[in-house]
Amino acid sequence: MSNKLVAASSFHVSPHLFLTQIDSLIEQKNISNDMTQLELLVLYKDALIEKHPDSVKIFKELAILNANLNQPKDAYTFTKKYIDNTLDVSILNNGAYDVISDSDEYNELSEYYLLQIDWLTFLFLYVSLIGFFFTIIINFSKKSNKYAKLFISGFVGVHSLFILEFVLFISNIQYQIPHSYLMASVVALLYGPLLYFYFKSVTYGFKFRKVDLLHFLPTLILIVYLFPMYSLSSNEKMEIMLEIDNSYNTYRYVIFITKVVSLAIYAILIGRLQYTQRKKEINAEHKEQPIDKWKRIIYRIHIIYLISYVIYGLPVSGLLLDFPYFINYIQVSTMSIMVIYLAYMAYVQPEIFKYEYALKDVMSLEKYQKSGLTNALSQELKENLIKLFVEEKVYKENNINLEVLSQRLNTTRHNTSQIINEHFNINFFELINKFRIKEAISIFKEDVHGSLNIIDIAYEVGYNNKVTFNKAFKKETSQTPSEFINSQLKKVK
Q1: Greater model confidence, 58 or 429
Q2: Domain containing residue 329
Q3: Where does the record place the HTH araC/xylS-type domain (predicted)?
Q4: Which of 39, 67, 173, 361 is the most buried (most CB within 10 A)?
């Protein structure tokens, strides 16, 4: 046994030593001396044995002393005891912990309590902010189905809230704002209903009724059920987060199980909507519209999200233990992909959100047979439509939509949609794109020196941005604008 340990073990402490005497001793001795620190360890441990009333302060001193003496295991033990009793994680900012900063014990304490900021945290935070921005901005669009945009924005909003809560969790910022604990759970049962009503809105022109409020009744019941937990003080919520108080674990089970059931039920309901619509389109030999592909992708992401939530929720809810930590990121990654995809589509194909994209075309599958549009009127509207496109070039107006075109034809949206479908066998947006790309090709061919900018041509023919133009151009010609220009220049040479 070393001299230091012999001296420390032989150091006698009165069983009635008060903490004030220990503090006095600290001031009298040289704290930088290892011998003195070992003696102090004995003093504090004896005080704990005697169940001194200031034992919490003793935990803190023992934690710091053990850290200074490079004894990470004991430092870990007493640090945990101090934090569990005081909820004060700032102790880890003490310089004494620099001595054990390379130890596994300190790394565990640091990851569990201290602020953790890395590239992944910033990425998820960025995605959540994009989601909130989308949630707000989409509701400012005009000439749109107000119910569809309300439901899809709400759907993105609840995802963004969950992602933000996850950011607070993995970064440990939640310890600074305890009332953020399980903040996204209040909307846990809204994912399914919001997506379901969005699909109904863009498929059948659904309008919300009072009876549909029943779909949101489970959310109201869950809020009432969770209210006792939400009404706790910040310290009480800290105890739950630090797993000191386990009396509220049942809440996590309830949230997980009810959310899985809700997601599964609405996945079935949305699947039935998709199947019914597709069956009608096949029977009517209706060409698939871009929005059909859009809805199919969203639905598939929803299914993937349901599966990932089950994988994520089993260990997090406590129903399944010893799962790799990376599964915490599976669900949030799926959510993030969905939010980014929606935001991306809002940029490259804004008409999906801005207008009732192909909605009337889908609805007209059943209505055209009963339409009051006579053959003579149909032919007249067709000729007027051609005149608007060929002579007046209405497609070059970047704000053109089905409503505006119908006003120019002095007829209804339904009639305009029917004319386009029956006489051209395409929908409104495909017709617009065909004329715009044809105009762009004509301009490119006249520009024999390739001096014009692609973005200028895009604006000239009616597009609002280069990305949408490039996508439409390649779809129509199988070439990008740049590739087309290069091929034309080669011909000139």
Answers
A1: 429
A2: 119-356
A3: 384-487
A4: 67
